[in-house]
Amino acid sequence: MKKQSLYLECAAGISGDMTVAALLDAGADTQALQAALDSIPFAFKTQISRVKKNGIDCCDFAVILQEDNHDHDMEYLFGHEHGHGETEHEKHHEHSHEHSGHEHEHSHDHSHHHSHRNMSDITKIIQATQMTDSARALALSIFSIIAKAESKAHGIPVDQVHFHEVGAVDSIVDVIAMAVCFDSLAIHNVYVPYMFEGCGTIRCQHGILPVPVPAVANIAQDYALPLQLSSIRGEFITPTGAAFVAAVRTSSTIPKTMTIMRTGMGAGKRTYDVPSILRAMIISEEASEDEASSDAASSDAIIKIETNIDDCTGENLGFVMEELFSAGARDVSYTPCYMKKNRPAWTVNVICTESTCQAMEHILFTQTTTIGMRKFRAERSILERNVTEIQTEWGTARVKCVQLGDTKRYYPEYESVAELARNTRMPFYDIYNGIVQAAHAHGASS
Fold it and tell me: 215-237 burial string, b = 16+ CB within 10 Å, else e?
């Protein structure tokens, strides 16, 4: 059995625009991306083009704003460090090959000023953007990771974090674009063995900060990201890039055997001593003979964390579940139990990947009263699955298609069923069965 996975080679770090460009170059759905960008309520332009980086042909994704943006201005970012600035001529020359791309303008409401936007504002923007439920969940997860990192850096609650560079229009567009592009590729696993980072300092809204900047350092710590620090002065990993890796990475160890299906080369805007390129490889993993003979089920390793709690309120535990899912938990459940002195209590069960295990522990220790937990590494068998959209007589529905040998099973997504039931005023059960029938008919005819 072959599984389509993503290998991110972060030899020059990672940023939002580099990631979007690399995923587009690797075959992400440009129509889905354009539909999402058109629905964002801001005035901006996007440009997808081809540029040269050290002679290598790369894809470039640019968000063009009317306001001045210093994110790619090397003199502004590093001019305080002698000898590490870049002239306007050098910046222009680096991107002088942008004639083969296309530019799209988005004209919407100007009511939100980009320098005073909090997580609630960003959530509303993402909720209103046209994208799949899974892409929306990923976009929200990326920004949630950034918000928590900024909260930790500034020592304030998450809801009081006011984004600056990260909350600017171009970064909101980058995060939405990353989520939509990644979702369209139907990736099974994401491998990131290392992330190259520079050193020195960088200028930002808060003044001059050390590299890696506090938000990136916090994300790396909370999600055990594999940083590889160098002596090259500069910032190679941005908060949006780090948060994307934290949200999607499943392993730091690439498969022993793989076939490269497609390669995407994403260009960065900054110029350093190393070429600013993010390489995204869509790979096909070769399953073992044991896996191939397991009736279409593949093996996967997960971590189970459990702890018993008898002195937390229901409101507290409800909040904890949201935090765990936001940080990448695969599943969270509470089981009632009795503890010493006949106290009614809850066993908290968390299913996660090895890469997110540390983040789960951190949430449980900081957000609950537990003082210890148990961890179990377990092998699991999973069926091949994908999510597709099915046209029904009531509208479009998202359906999970599961392959078991030669048989396909269809499971409509709850939100799709609920939305159609509300719109048509028909019973949930009837809509659900109708979608299943439509999915079987679609599968038989495709």
Answer: bbbbbbebbbbebeeeebbbbbb
Place of tokens 């960088």: 202
Question: Which among 189, 190, 264 is positioned nearest to 24, based on CA atoms?
Answer: 264
* Ranges of the chain with pLDDT below 70: 1-3, 66-116, 163-167, 205-206, 286-300, 444-446
H or E segment at 228?
strand 227-233
Question: What angle is formed at CA 135 by the lines to CA 133 and CA 138, rounded to 5 degrees?
Answer: 110
| Cα 419 to Cα 411: distance, rounded to the nearest angstrom | 15
Residue 96: is it exposed, middle or buried by C-beta count within 10 angstroms (0-12/13-18/19+)? exposed
Helix (H) or strand (E) holding 208: strand 207-210
Sequence-ordered list of residues with C-beta below 8 angstroms from that of 31, at least 6 positions apart, any chain: none
Q: What is the pLDDT of residues 154-187, one digit of tens each?
A: 787 777 777 655 447 888 999 999 999 999 998 9
Helices (H), 185-300: 214-222, 239-248, 289-292
pLDDT given for residue 174 in this prediction: 94
pLDDT of res. 3? 66
- DSSP, collapsed to helix, strand or coil, labels residue 188 as coil
pLDDT at 160: 72
Q: What is the pLDDT of residue 36?
A: 95
C-beta neighbour count of 426 within 10 angstroms: 13
Cα gap 59→278, rounded to integer Å: 10
Grouping H, G, I as helix, E, B as strand and the rest as coil, residue 169 is: helix
| Summary count for the chain: helices (H), strands (E) | 14, 19
pLDDT at 382: 79
Given this model, what pLDDT does residue 182 score? 95
CA-based R_g, the chain, Å: 23
Which residues have a Cβ under 8 Å from the Cβ of 120 and sit 6 or more positions away? 159
In this predicted structure, what is the pLDDT of residue 7?
Answer: 96
Q: Is the peptide bond before 212 cis (omega within 30 degrees of 0)?
A: yes
Q: What is the pLDDT of residues 57-75, one digit of tens each?
A: 999 999 988 665 555 554 5
Q: Strand 162-163 to strand 227-233: parallel, antiparallel, or no bridges (unpaired)?
A: unpaired
| Adjacent-strand bridge partners of 410 | 401
Strand-pairing partners, residue 299, are 381
Six token digits for residue 112: 């939100």
The residues, ordered by sequence, that sit 6+ positions from 152 with a Cβ below 8 Å of its Cβ are 214, 218
Closest alpha carbon to 205 in 159, 230, 239: 239
Residue 61: Cβ within 10 Å count: 28
| Tokens (6 digits) for 82 | 């002698």
Token pair 């080679």 in the structure block, residue: 9
